[in-house]
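Researcher: Here's a chain I'd like modeled. Treat it as a single chain, no partners, no ligands.
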Amino acid sequence: MKLGIIGSGKISDIYIRNLMHRYKYVEVVCLTSLHPENAHRKAETYNLPACSLEEMLSDPQVDATVVLTPVGSHESLIRQSLEHGKHVYTEKTLTDQPETAAALVRLAKERGLYLGSAPDTFLGCSLQKAREILDSGTLGEITGFTACATRNNIHLLPIYTFLLEEGAGIALDYGVYYLTALISLLGPVAGCACLTRNPRPDFLCDMPASPLNGQHIHNPNESILTAILQTRSGITGTLNLNADCVDEDIADFKILGTRGVLELNDPNAFGGDLRLIRSGREVERIPVTSPLGQNERGLGISEMALSAQEGRPCRASGELACHTLDVLHALLLSSDQSSFVTVPSTCEQPQRLTDQEAFSLLRNPG
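Model: Modeled as a single isolated chain. Structure tokens:
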């Protein structure tokens, strides 16, 4: 699958490197950006041709576009790509609104095209090993889950200023990793109840490395989220995200069962060992040694390309991303309405990616 990259921001580097050198079934052939001067600089770095968006979309050599721009531009870029007969894979989230996401999923189906979306961290070795353990029945009956994570907006917002845009709160920017992981492990979500807060909407930036140093920063988005979720299979659990904390990415993520508790790694990462706690507090550390434990961004694109070749659904699919976005908006709606909210959509639980399938995606598995 020959790829055209749309976007030249910081996240593009790991995608381009992985797609050019790490994964099979894909080939990067050109690059464009909403800022042409940035596209030319990035293209020169990787010895790729730079082009305009119009040239990329009209080029019959390009099979698929990879959209790595801010989420506000996703809907237009994905739609244009699909209308030009291109498969699409996009950075998270699919769009910023469930309605536009659902419309794009329908358009892709109508055109017979693949639409995939990040995060693809759930395809990494850690969460796929967790899926293998759950499927084996090791935990017995699954009775619940708990996920708790921290961030530090005082450090993050002055550097990643896109987080100050309306709608870029902890739910859509960070909760998407946890929800995608939960859906891949336990299936789609039926409903939720949620409370959100923003206790520090304004603060003084004291970071010399930030372009906002010395300025007062206004954050319009929620920074704390506390929720109860119920899957369609009847499993209930909690999700707690807090960006008003002293440290970043401290993850406490567990699946609870009648025979044990499985402690998972941070779902914003691809690798990491697991821990299995059995009756009597017996703890077993489960090392995860598959090669897909580095920063594997682009893994979902390689898997999508192979899926297209084999004529089957891809795992990091538009349907999964659309349902995840529905759940995220249901959480925010629940907080606004102070009520339990039913999630209108569903999706197929992605198939587990076996070690053999994972190895097959790599150019150099050793």
